[in-house]
């Protein structure tokens, strides 16, 4: 098992990144279908329960990633990135990581405030207790708005982030995507930082 390295991400960071990304994209599709399409009420109930259970798994994984961020060493930014790109990429990562926490907590708040009082059956194994928030229609509407708004914001930001990763890989030919795929040392010569032609010392 690899830990974070100076130039690359470790096993856990890579595994968590792709697992969380996959689950989130699935949850957004599922959330849209269960909430915004006309489907059979029994199927809708079941989709809501799957959505809530998988969403809580994402919350757990996002907390784990947060803990790893604090204890593990961060890889150095790819050498060919300029200072503005470095700041922009760090800011995007921090916002994405925070949204991975805020979105599921807001979803949990929707389930906790709805006056319908429908329990959350975690994969049909245990009932997840509600958050300590009063049940009311106003509360449910508020948290639904926050949950949906932050979920679609996350989708938009993730799309930009993925486009940036693909741009780095296919246009700039640098290591940005390769190292998140666990392939180190695959930097193309075109992306190597150029030696500056200074005075001979
Ligand atoms: C990262 C995790 C999650 C994502 C990306 C996500 C995404 C979404 C999306 C896109 C919708 C449809 C919003 C709309 O079009 O109005 C939705 C609805 C919903 N989600 Fe999530 N969700 C997540 C986690 C959770 C969790 C953990 C729970 C509860 C424990 C939850 C409960 C709900 C509920 C109850 C709705 C329906 C809201 C309503 O009726 O207005 N979600 N979710
Ligand atoms: C919901 C989807 C996604 C989320 C929430 C997300 C979030 C993140 C976060 C928080 C990081 C910082 C590193 C870490 O994980 O600790 C990161 C890095 C990265 N992500 Fe994503 N990501 C998503 C989807 C994608 C997709 C679809 C791609 C590629 C097509 C991608 C490519 C990358 C790459 C290449 C890095 C490393 C960037 C670098 O080292 O500068 N991500 N992502």
From TrEMBL:
Domain of life: Bacteria
Residue ranges annotated for the Cytochrome b561 bacterial/Ni-hydrogenase domain, each copy included: 9-182
Bilayer topology term: Multi-pass membrane protein
Alphabetical list of InterPro entries matching this protein: Cyt_b561_bac/Ni-Hgenase, Cytochrome_b561_oxidase, Di-haem_cyt_TM
TM regions (residue ranges): 12-34, 54-72, 93-111, 151-170
Listed SUPFAM superfamilies: Transmembrane di-heme cytochromes
Sorted UniProt keywords: Cell membrane, Electron transport, Heme, Iron, Membrane, Metal-binding, Transmembrane, Transmembrane helix, Transport
Cofactors: heme b
Major subcellular location class: membrane
Intracellular or extracellular location(s): Cell membrane
Family statement drawn from the similarity comment of this UniProt entry: Belongs to the cytochrome b561 family.
Protein name (record): Cytochrome b
Lineage: Bacteria, Pseudomonadati, Pseudomonadota, Alphaproteobacteria, Hyphomicrobiales
């Amino acid at each position: 098992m690899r830990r974070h390295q100076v130039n690359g991400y470790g096993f856990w960071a890579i595994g968590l990144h792709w697992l969380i990304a996959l689950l989130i994209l699935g949850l957004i599709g599922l959330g849209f279908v269960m909430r915004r399409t006309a489907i059979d009420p029994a199927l809708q109930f079941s989709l809501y329960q799957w959505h809530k259970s998988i969403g809580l798994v994402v919350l757990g994984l996002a907390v784990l990633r947060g803990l790893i961020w604090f204890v593990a060493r961060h890889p150095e930014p790819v050498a060919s990135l300029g200072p503005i790109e470095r700041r922009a990429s760090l800011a995007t990562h921090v916002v994405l990581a925070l949204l991975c926490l805020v979105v599921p907590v807001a979803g949990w708040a929707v389930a906790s405030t709805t006056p319908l009082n429908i329990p959350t059956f975690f994969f049909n194994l245990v009932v997840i207790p509600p958050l300590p928030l009063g049940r009311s229609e106003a509360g449910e509407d508020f948290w639904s708005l926050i949950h949906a708004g932050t979920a679609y914001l996350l989708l938009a930001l993730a799309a930009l982030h993925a486009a940036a990763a693909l741009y780095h890989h296919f246009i700039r030919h640098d290591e940005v995507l390769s190292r998140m795929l666990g392939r180190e040392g695959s930097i193309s010569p075109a992306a190597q930082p150029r030696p500056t032609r200074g005075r001979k010392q």
